[in-house]
Amino acid sequence: MTKNETFEDIPxxxxxxxxxxxxxxxxxxxxxxxxxxxxxAGTKLYAVHLTDGRRIAVMDDRERAFxxxxxxxxxxxxxx
Length: 80
What we know:
- This protein is α+β, with helices and mostly antiparallel strands.
- Helix content is 20%, strand content 28%.
- It has a four-stranded mixed β-sheet.
């Protein structure tokens, strides 16, 4: 909270989203990435999911996935 914020300025509840690592192979199998996509070996991807399981974003960096959620007024939590 900054000096100028009051408790009324802080949202009571922001929607929760789940961030988890997902393999490129999974995304290809689901049709989210073209089968002929050229990804570097060892590429790690991180999916952002709504609580009902719908994937709303995929990022190539875990911190970026969390930051994108926060920037969109969502509360990210990690899923392993």
